[in-house]
Amino acid sequence: MKSLDEYLREAEQAHGHLCAGQVLGVRMAMLGLQRLEIDDPRSKEDRKRLITFVEIDRCATDAVAVVTGCRLGKRALKFRDWGKVAATFVDVQTGRAIRVAAKESSKALARTLHPELADKNQQQMLAYREIADDDLFTTQWVKVELPPEEFPGYKGERVVCDSCGEGVNFRREVRRDGKVLCHACAGERYYDLL
């Protein structure tokens, strides 16, 4: 595994700037991998071993992706929009999974550690490098059920929505009243038609 500083440089490059969220994300991923005993998830032998669930669409998520090598396009990074600075790391080889979440108390701890810094982000960036894992995160061993369509490389059938005619992959269709529908046609649109 690379050092914290090496990962932070990579995270800054990938994300466009370095911030407290990046430091949290890097530390979170390093801790998850350490607990799963995965040294380099980006190595040839381990790159298909890890699936990561992230619970927020903020800076920390980009940092988690840098450390783990998990990407949405590779189907190894899964997003759950729960608004939490948390991630679950799943070793598909062993079936073990650990959820790591940032403690809300870490913000106040950062202020007490570095009151000489007026800028909150600077306080957090420095403190989040120094704070012990147990003071920065909660960890829980969890069980994650992964059906075959959730794995990278899954080659499932593609169905066509009976309403709009668009293709739907990976068993994401909705079956209702004998029809095959995409989520949008089933009434779960995140957009409005003009």
Number of strands: 9
The 3D shape can be described as globular
Total helical segments: 6
CATH topology of the largest domain: 60s Ribosomal Protein L30, Chain: A
Q: Could you spell the SSE succession in H and E letters?
A: HHEHEEEHHHEEEEE
Mean pLDDT: 93
| End-to-end distance | 50 Å
* Poorly predicted ranges: none
**Helicity level:** 25-40%
Radius of gyration: 19 Å
Spatial order of strands in the largest sheet: 2-1-3-4-5
CATH class of the largest domain: Alpha Beta
The largest pleated sheet is described as: 5 strands, mixed
Structure, explained:
This protein has two domains: 146 residues, 60s Ribosomal Protein L30, Chain: A, CATH 3.30.1330; 39 residues, Wheat Germ Agglutinin (Isolectin 2), domain 1. It has 194 residues and is of the alpha+beta class. The strands form three sheets. It has a five-stranded mixed β-sheet with strand order 2-1-3-4-5. The protein has a two-stranded antiparallel ribbon with strand order 6-7. 33% of the residues are buried. It has six helices and nine strands; from the N terminus they run ααβαβββαααβββββ.
